[in-house]
Amino acid sequence: MTEFLQYTLQGLAAGGFYALAALGLAVIFGVLGVVNFSHGACYMLGAMVAALLLQHFDLGFWPALVIVPVIMFFFGVLVERLLVQWLLRLDPLYNFLLTFGLTLLTVDVMKRQFGVSSLKYQVPAGLEGRFTIGSVDLSVYQLFAAAFAVVICLAVWMILTKTRVGMIVRAATEDAERSRALGINVARWVTPVFGFGIALAGLAGVLAAPYRAINADMGSNFIIILFAIVVIGGLGSILGAVVAGFLVGLVEAYGQGYYGQLSQVLIFVLMAAVVLIRPAGLFGREEVA
Amino acid sequence: MRHTRMISLAAMVASSGLVLTACGSAGGGPASGGDSKLSDDKVVLGLLNDQSGVYKDLSGPNSKVAIEMAIADYKAKYGDDAVAKNIEIVMADHQNKPDIANTKAQEMYDRDKADIILDVPTSSAALAVATQAKAKKKLHINVGAATTALTGKSCNKYTFHWAYDTYMLANGTGTVLVGEGGKNWSIVYPDYAFGQDMTKSFTAAVEKGGGTVQQSIATPFPNDNFATFITKAESSKPDVIGIMAAGGDLVNFVKQYNQAGLQGKTTLAVGLMFITDIHTLGVEQFAGTTFTDAWYWNMDAESKAWADKFKEKTNTRPSFAHAGNYSAALQYLEAIQEAGTDGSDDVVAKLEGKKVNDVFLRNGEIRAGDHRVLHDAYLVKVKDKANVKEEWDYEEIIKTIPAAEAFNPTVSADCKM
């Protein structure tokens, strides 16, 4: 029983992080209809930029938590303005290929510049050590990362559903033509939303920096899990991404605990099962998917 | 469907470019002449290793500097009496890929007239070069690769294994740690050839020393999240947790191990680790970790003096691979000196069975039966940050493993020269 509780706790902690990482992917798909393959690369860039800020400007974890998403936001805006916007009217496959190419390019540029060894990063002061409740325990940092991720997810959900800005963004994606007729400048909202999604990927990268290897390849495996999460949750559904993030975290932890090398396979078994039963994902709407 | 087709088209275009480059660069070399005992009137040392990837820092371009130091020392020692007066180095990047290593080795032996190829990290690449060495009857002294197959079923007359192998790593860390009281082990390993081999060697070594491996936990490869694997490894309350991952996975594991609060509580033994790993990730992450090293730059005055000279030229400290390449090049040139020629068979005859002591090899012996070079190895512990006095001052030697015990004492039955 202790074992089970321990795995559950670890699964939930990992899940919080997955939810945040998948959130940007869901937002971008929900609003722009773009399947952003470069999300893993942007996550990697976030972690790399955090490590470089530390190395060259002595800016640690806390400032990075603010600076990196801002940098990544502008990176996203640049990518959207220069590249993504031209393909928005075509088949979504075109933007998928574009972002796939962008990923290859980004990863290779980073490899060339910084090599393949991992960059240094430390757990921020105050978040070291372990947190014990009864017979189970968790690293303080893991707990922090999960709680932080949940807060961000909630905030994003509130912005999109409860504020005027959120309403405009949603209206613009539901029916661009009619929104325009009502005097909403749709194009004005598409770019910041893309930047925002990329900023979230960067933020996940910063959160990962203290406890994962920081190198050009770190996003390459991660993106596959993120895709599994958004497919399980329902493409474009924010609530879906969050729930599926936790679900995948739990499945992975139980897998690691009980079935060893099957832990990653189980995630995709879950994905296959969900797609068979609900093709649009747990929280996806058929018309969106 | 459409996009898979596009990707395969792109891949085809890219690979055909590669083939064209490879074909275009093949060509003839000058014919040999004169009455020198040297083929082509010169000795050509080929350095084939990773110049752009994960082992670049471990060996890479700085090994060329190490080989140049060996050439300088040889010339200084023999002056006008040197048999090899004209010595050249050719260098290439094998990108850790066996197919590229194979092509580059052929180019080196045939076009560049290399008499020997040195280094070659990555086991699969090393085995490809050993096969070429056998076919071309030219030497290969391997420094950077770990596989015991080089002195096992792939052994041959022209291939030598100079620095370390998986038996040395497992035996050093496994057997010795058990002797120091680390009886109960949990091993975590990535579930592919390297991880499985290392686990097998470590389990044998731990059991030989009288310890037990309570559990071996297979993990997917590659893997980012080790949290639950770590909990599981710890659950049997082992004295030692052994991790057989390398590269990014090793970094992931160690970071998460430290965050689980285990650093310093349970001994962490790393199957394969290089000083460059400690340098890139920071000594604090690895503090207290135990592993087996083939050589350490600050282990005594002789090594330190050599490392100082190396630092003047490269502005960094040498890894065991740099010192190993120096040693291999130097002993090769010494063998030419003794033989009076660079003919492969004569040089091999001089190397076989030779007892050697130099900066790198301590109590060294080139075993004739399988060309395994036996020498002292070192069980080391990574220092705490507080004890680090200068950059690269990372290792504390806790035990010198004598040459006779460090490597497999028997020649593998699979080795037919």
TrEMBL record, chain A:
- How is it placed in the membrane, per its record? Multi-pass membrane protein
Q: What is an example of a GO molecular function annotated in this UniProt entry?
A: transmembrane transporter activity
CDD domains from the UniProt entry: TM_PBP1_LivH_like
Q: What keywords are assigned to this protein?
A: Amino-acid transport, Cell membrane, Membrane, Transmembrane, Transmembrane helix, Transport
Q: What are the BP-aspect GO terms?
A: amino acid transport
Name where it's found: Cell membrane
A single Gene Ontology CC term:
plasma membrane
Q: Where are the transmembrane segments?
A: 12-31, 61-87, 93-110, 140-160, 189-211, 223-251, 257-277
**A Pfam family it matches:** BPD_transp_2
Which InterPro entries is this protein grouped with? Answer: ABC_transp_permease, BCAA_transport_permease
PANTHER family, per the entry = ABC TRANSPORTER ATP-BINDING PROTEIN, BRANCHED-CHAIN AMINO ACID TRANSPORT SYSTEM PERMEASE PROTEIN LIVH
Instruction: Provide the family line.
Output: Belongs to the binding-protein-dependent transport system permease family. LivHM subfamily.
Q: What is this protein called?
A: ABC transporter permease
**Originating species:** Knoellia sinensis KCTC 19936
Lineage, broadest ranks: Bacteria, Bacillati, Actinomycetota, Actinomycetes, Micrococcales
TrEMBL record, chain B:
Q: Which InterPro entries match?
A: BCAA_transport (IPR051010), Leu-bd (IPR028081), Peripla_BP_I (IPR028082)
Organism phylogeny: Bacteria, Bacillati, Actinomycetota, Actinomycetes, Micrococcales
SUPFAM superfamilies named among the record's database cross-references:
Periplasmic binding protein-like I
Name the UniProt key words of this record, in alphabetical order.
Signal
The reply to whether Signal figures as a keyword in the UniProt entry is: yes
Q: Which family does it belong to?
A: Belongs to the leucine-binding protein family.
| Chain ranges of the Leucine-binding protein domain | 43-385
Quote the protein name from its UniProt record. Branched-chain amino acid ABC transporter substrate-binding protein
Q: Which species is this UniProt entry from?
A: Knoellia sinensis KCTC 19936
Q: Where is the signal peptide?
A: 1-21
Q: Answer yes or no on keyword Signal.
A: yes
